[in-house]
Write a structure and sequence with these properties.
- The chain is of the alpha/beta class and 602 residues long.
- It has three domains: 3-194, 3-Layer(aba) Sandwich (Rossmann fold); 245-383, 3-Layer(aba) Sandwich (Rossmann fold), CATH 3.40.50.1220; 395-593, Thiamin diphosphate (ThDP)-binding fold, Pyr/PP domains (Rossmann fold, 3-Layer(aba) Sandwich), CATH 3.40.50.970.
- Helix content is 35%, strand content 16%.
- It has helices at 3-18, 32-43, 55-69, 81-84, 87-96, 146-161, 221-224, 255-267, 281-284, 298-301, 317-323, 352-361, 369-394, 402-412, 425-433, 453-462, 474-479, 522-527, 534-540, 551-558, 581-594; strands spanning 22-25, 48-51, 73-77, 100-106, 132-135, 171-176, 188-191, 194-197, 245-249, 272-274, 306-310, 329-334, 346-351, 418-421, 440-443, 468-473, 495-501, 544-547, 565-571.
- The protein has a six-stranded parallel beta sheet, with helices on both faces. A six-stranded parallel beta sheet has the order 15-14-16-17-19-18, with helices on both faces. A five-stranded parallel beta sheet has the order 10-9-11-12-13.
- Helix 8 (255-267) links the parallel strand 9 and strand 10 (272-274).
- It is globular, with a radius of gyration of 26 Å.
Length: 602
């Protein structure tokens, strides 16, 4: 066994001992030792290997797998630009606290800085975006190395899962390999096209790892659980109990965490304005998210004393304005050293444990009649919003539009299914449409880019936990078209992707750039329509394609559980004066103003 093969086999074995379930591999020569070791482990049923040819899509596939399972999903690349192509997914994993692991194969140190082919400085390539990074020493023909190899993987795993006191996130282990890179076959190895007879020497130390089949370094089980499953601690002071508390729930990247916030706030009579990410978000949160803030008079009549921010609110400008309300105290709940406060208004930050302790402690005093009326008033405002919005979502004049399509998707999906929603307009359409349902909604809101959205959804589908769907725009879909590029030996995901095709970046039409007075350069430099045929492109990659022009056709396309890769295209004319994103939002605003929703006299 040559040193590179020995090192790769130990790395893969240690990953298996740690509980690794999925690994994504990109092709390359320098990563050959890891490729062989992973193929052997996959054939033995010890883990599931996914091979992809596009590194950017591969990294987001690993991110989706980790997002769904909360278990680190390594992505393996060869040296050079391949490693740089993982950077967008690493940044998203950092911002969203997703346990992504990068195993970057590298040239040995003696080739760095010499102009050797496919050689660049990969050490700490991702800077501060990773929780931990390490440049593994080059394997040599000597004993005493497996402890160092296994310890490095254990440290990376612990950092990625958050066991070192930080939120979960990405890590990098850079692994330099020297030739020979391929394992011996029947005592022979191939080097430069020449068949050589191996010396027959056995490796100078045993490489079996710990006898109990566990990892080289055990991490305390209590430190390895996800942060939202941590129990309240007796040494943590509960969050203060203040009756007129309004909760703003942003993305916490976990339906379980979102549900804890919703149920706890309901017990404490704290109304919740929730972004659309999480499970059953409409059953206890105010329906249709921050749309309640558009109800005339609601903030002047039922002004909170405290606004409690949980997670990262990123979708709504009205929410951002709410947090800047003069005279209202803003506090945050954070699971780690980061908290959301882009306006610099937060006066206090409490831990996740403090929130759980408050929920467990319950209410310490009886609510006054005024406090109860205040809570009920917010609930009634939400109900009035639902009464106005529901007819709009089903109004034939609103079809096809983004919110109407989002409504049909939510209404058609089976209970317990997973929906990944793309950034840009899709997330905002869902924010308007979401009321009560039993769907787990995820998004890439760490940095809210359109990079790798399809790949992320595919990773979640491959995790195999529930029927999986995605709702994205056409530019988001085209941006990650290579996600559909899969080999015949790969496990193909069961995923249905609904693409709202408005031929460009419709979201910019809702911003100041889309104002009529700025129309001159809008189409070219903001809307950026493309000439590609979305359906033909998807079909060329082997996906099943369905066209849905009516509500009934969309429902029919979603009626059966996903089987293979299916793309459902719904065409939308963003220039339509009745159904463009700007027109829909304006009609929504007017409907709330005219729909007998004024609470100022109530």
């Amino acid at each position: 066994m040559n040193p590179s093969t020995a090192c790769a086999r130990v790395i893969v074995d240690e990953l298996i001992r740690l509980g690794c379930q999925h690994v994504v591999l990109c092709p390359g020569s320098r990563s050959a030792p890891l490729a062989y070791a992973l193929a052997e482990a996959d054939a033995a049923g010890q883990l599931t290997l996914h091979v992809r040819v596009d590194e950017r899509s591969a990294a987001y596939l690993a991110l989706g797998l980790a997002k769904a399972t909360r278990i680190p999903a390594p992505v393996v690349t060869t040296s050079g630009t391949a490693v740089a192509n993982l950077h967008p997914a690493v940044l998203e994993a950092d911002a969203a606290s997703v346990p992504l692991m990068v195993l970057s194969a590298d040239r040995p140190p003696e080739l760095r800085g010499t102009g050797a082919n496919q050689t660049t400085d990969q050490v700490k390539m991702y800077g501060t975006a990773v929780r931990w990074s390490h440049d593994l020493g080059v394997a040599e023909w000597r004993g005493g190395q497996q402890g160092a190899w296994r310890t490095a993987i254990d440290r990376a795993w612990a950092a990625s899962t958050g066991a070192l006191g930080t939120p979960p996130g990405p890590v990098q282990v850079n692994v330099p390999f020297r030739d020979p890179l391929a394992p011996e076959v029947d005592g022979h190895r191939v080097t430069g096209g020449t068949v050589c007879v191996d010396s027959g020497d056995t490796w100078p130390e045993l490489l079996e790892g710990r006898a109990d089949s566990g990892p080289w370094t055990q991490v305390a089980p209590a430190a390895r659980g996800p942060w939202w499953e941590q129990q309240p601690r007796g040494d943590v002071d509960p969050l203060s109990d203040e009756p007129r508390t309004l909760v703003v729930l942003g993305d916490v990247d976990s339906p379980g965490a979102a549900q804890q916030v919703l149920s706890g706030a309901h017990q404490l009579h704290w109304p919740v304005l929730a972004e659309p990410f999480g499970r059953r978000i409409g059953t206890t949160a105010l329906p249709h998210g921050p749309s309640v803030l558009s109800v005339p008079g609601v903030m002047t009549s039922y002004r909170p004393d405290r606004i409690l921010v949980v997670g990262r609110p990123t979708l709504s400008r009205p929410v951002a304005a709410l947090l800047r309300t003069p005279g209202v105290r803003v506090e945050s709940v954070s699971a780690g050293p980061r908290w959301a406060d882009p306006s610099h208004v937060t006066s206090r930050v409490s831990s996740w444990a403090a929130l759980l302790s408050r929920v467990q402690a319950g209410i310490q005093h009886e609510r006054t009649l005024q406090d109860q009326e205040w809570f009920q008033a917010w609930q009634q405002a939400g109900e009035r919003v639902a009464q106005v919005v529901a007819p709009l979502l089903t109004d034939p004049q609103w079809w096809p539009s983004g919110p109407a399509i989002a409504h049909e998707v939510l209404s058609s999906l089976p209970a317990g299914s997973t929906l990944f929603v793309g950034s840009s307009n899709s997330a905002r359409d869902l924010d308007v449409a979401r009321c009560g349902d039993n769907v787990d909604v995820y998004a890439g809101r760490g940095l809210a880019g359109i990079d790798g959205n399809v790949s992320t959804a595919m990773g979640m589908a491959l995790a195999g936990q529930s029927p999986t769907y995605a709702l994205v725009g056409d530019l988001t879909f085209f941006h990650d078209l290579n996600a559909l590029l899969m080999g015949p030996h790969e496990v193909h995901p069961n995923l249905t992707v609904v693409v709202v095709d408005d031929n460009g970046g419709g979201i910019f039409g809702t911003l100041e750039y889309g104002e009529p007075v700025r129309a001159g350069a809008f189409e070219r430099v903001f809307a950026t329509p493309v000439v590609g045929d979305l359906a033909a492109a998807a079909a060329a990659y082997g996906a099943q394609v369905r066209l849905a022009s009516t509500r009934e056709e969309l429902r029919a396309a979603l009626a059966e559980p996903p089987q293979g890769m299916t793309v459902v295209r719904v065409a939308v004319d963003r220039h339509d004066p009745l159904r463009s994103p700007r027109a829909v939002r304006e009609r929504f605003r007017l409907a709330l103003e005219e729909g007998n929703t004024d609470v100022s006299s109530r």
